[in-house]
Amino acid sequence: MTILETKKLEKHFDGVQAVDNLSIGIEKGEIAGIVGPNGSGKTTLINLLSGTLEIDAGAVIINGVQKFENINPWQISFYGITRTFQDVRLFEQMTVLDNILVVLTERNVFSSLFEKHKEYHLKKAEEVLQKVGLWKKKNQLAINLSYGQRKLLEIARTLAMDAEIYLFDEPFAGLFPEMVKIVSDVVKELKREGKTIILIEHNMELIRKLCDYLFVMDEGKLLAEGKPEKVLAKKEVIEAYLGK
Amino acid sequence: MGIIPQLILNSIIAGAIYSLVAIGFSLIYGATKFFNLAHGVMAAIGGYSVFYFAKTLGWDLWLAVSIGMLLAGLIGYGLDKIIYKPLRKRKASNMVLLVASLGAFTALQAIIAILFTSQFQTISGNIGAQNIYEIFGGVITQTQLIILISAITIMAGLALLLKYTMFGKAIKAISDDEEVSKIVGINTDKIIGYVFFIGSVIAGLAGILVGFDTGIKPTMGLSLLLKGVIASIVGGIGNIYGGVLGAFLLGFVENFGIWKISGEWKDAIAFGLLIVFLIFRPRGIINN
Ligand SMILES: Nc1ncnc2c1ncn2[C@@H]1O[C@H](COP(=O)(O)OP(=O)(O)O)[C@@H](O)[C@H]1O
Ligand SMILES: [Mg+2]
Q1: Residue A110: per-residue pLDDT
Q2: How far is the CA of A243 from the centre of ligand 1 (A)?
Q3: Which of A132, B61, B159, B181 could disulfide-link B186, Cβ–Cβ 3.0 to 4.6 Å?
């Protein structure tokens, strides 16, 4: 079943066509990789899927029924979508623990706003922070974390949201091997739980190991798609990567 | 009665009033990142509500005070819903929002002047003769004591709310990164609406207290706003604890500044403090 679909999606910045007539479909429960040279529009695609940027033309379809010409960023969590940012974005002046607790709010009920955190919120926060090895740092301010820890905290935050669709923008970039292992374990576990993952990544070894399906973008367009081994063997894909 | 203890007391009372204005201003700035100049007029709305309901209509004083605070809160909330929120949606710059808030300020102040004339009025008439207390060799009136107690209560209550509730964490998150707050599912428009309500209620109370202490006029909001803004900048803009610190520093500098010179210099001294901070410590006492 196709859980997330784009239909002729377009986004341009001044002269640059960042996403160009892009139609792709993501299957539920799969890890879909997105690769492509720098500037090929991968991040822009995620920004469009998460409502961070407004769509110029085309549409996004969630679960085959909800069709959007534009998504309001605060609504994406209701549609089960969560994301990370390529340039990690945290609540810098809040502690590691609060970075997680703040997303564990019942978001619709007025009275819940004035409630304190309950035992189960703390349990959930501990669970996700343990998973990425940050529980011991729970009282540190986010701004004082190392680069790798920041990436892990951002991933923990997406886990706390209990989403259906996870959009990860280069989650492995710049990480030490032991952290790469933590993140790939998280991704594999999400898949085991039946979640859907979109993974932007440059490391082809990781792509081969993790992804069920692969999209190759170039200059905003879809260059190729299919099983990773097949796609990565295609001549035009190799050309796009090695430069024409 | 010693002069120094009296100056200290006066400074603390002024600081308490400025804090009440600065807290709301800072809270709103933190969440929206624009200077909401209309914040000042909430004080006048509070003061004039009490004047109208208690003095003109003769209603119960506590009821009038409650209505005044509620009215200020609702008007602050309404401004956000009707003016600022649509502007935010259109990605208006902070300068546009500032100008819009100046417009709202002017309009509301004019309405108050039309309804109640521009004359100075008192509202303390029906609380009768004031008790006067002596503390540490200084003199404080009953009204001023109430000012102090209200300010401390409000500050403590707000601090607890911000620190321990989901709402407080959501406000912090929005101040930190509004876009990410949306992505993680925080309904930022709703939270910002509540922030306007709470901030305006507190500003309304400040206006009521000033009204009891000295009296009201339609332009009272402007001078309170300026003091609140100076306190916020001196303390560290967007940080309510900074705002409180700045407010008390301002209260002390102002009152000790006019020790040997005429009280007319108060505002000049306040702006002098602002300029000193803008030059030497532009991000305020608490600068993170
Ligand atoms: N906010 C923006 N403003 C202007 N140009 C942008 C913006 N975001 C991306 N671009 C441009 O769009 C193109 C695609 O960028 P991006 O989606 O970040 O590529 P990728 O993530 O594949 O490296 C690039 O040419 C980039 O310069
Ligand atoms: Mg990118």
Answers
A1: 61
A2: 19
A3: B181
Burial degree of B240 (CB within 10 A; 0-12, 13-18, 19+): buried
**Average pLDDT estimate for A156-172:** 95
Mean pLDDT of B132-161: 90
Smallest-distance ligand from the CA of A41: 1
CA B31, CA B191: separation in Å to the nearest integer? Answer: 9
**The pLDDT value given to residue A107:** 56
Q: Chain A residue closest to B169 (CA)? A: A102
pLDDT surpasses 90 at B16: yes
Q: Which residue lies with its CA nearest to atom 2 of ligand 1?
A: A13
Interface of B with A in 59-88 (CB under 8 A): none
The pLDDT of residue B128: 58
Enumerate residues with CB within 5 Å of ligand 2 (an ion).
A 43, 86
Q: Position A67: which residue type? A: K
CA A59, chain centre distance (Å): 19
Q: In sequence order, which residues have a C-beta less than 8 Å from that of residue A91 and are 6 or more positions away? A: A98, A99, A102, A142, B172, B173, B176, B177, B180, B181
Q: Is B127 on the interface with A (CB under 8 A)?
A: no
Identity at A158, one-letter amino acid code: T
Q: Which residue of A has its CA nearest to B164?
A: A116
Q: Enumerate the residues of chain A whose CB falls inside 8 A of the CB of residue B194.
A: 113
The confidence band for A70, taking pLDDT boundaries of 50, 70 and 90, is: confident
Name which of A67, A84, A65, A76 is nearest A8 in CA terms: A67
Indicate which of B169, B178, B198 best probes the interface with A, i.e. most A CBs within 10 Å of its own CB: B169
Of B192, B228, B239, the residue nearest B32 (C-alpha): B192
* pLDDT at residue B288, rounded to an integer: 57
Non-local CB neighbours of B50 within 8 Å, separated by 6+ positions: B61, B64, B65, B68, B123, B208, B211
Query: Which CATH class, in words, describes the domain spanning B3-280?
Result: mainly alpha
User: Would you tell me how many other CB atoms lie within 10 Å of the CB of residue B250?
Assistant: 27
Residues 6+ apart with CB under 8 A from B124: B130, B143, B211, B212, B213, B215
The percentage of residues in chain A with a pLDDT greater than 90, rounded to a whole number, is 77
CA neighbor of A197 nearest in space, from A78, A81, A107, A36: A81
What is the atom index within ligand 1 of the atom nearest the CA of A42?
22
Q: Whose CA is nearest to atom 11 of ligand 1?
A: A18
Quote the minimal CA–CA distance from B47 to chain A in Å: 29
User: What length is written for chain B?
Assistant: 288
Smallest-distance ligand from the CA of A19: 1
Residue ranges per domain, chain B? 3-280
Query: Per-residue pLDDT tens for B115-125?
Result: 999 999 998 76
Counting ligand 1 atoms within 8 A of each CB, the residue from A10, A43, A53 with the most, and so the one to mutate, is: A43
Task: Give the integer Cα–Cα distance in Å for B114 and B92.
Answer: 31
> Are β-strands A2-13 and A16-22 bridged in parallel, bridged antiparallel, or unpaired?
antiparallel
Determine the 3-state secondary structure of A224 from DSSP. strand
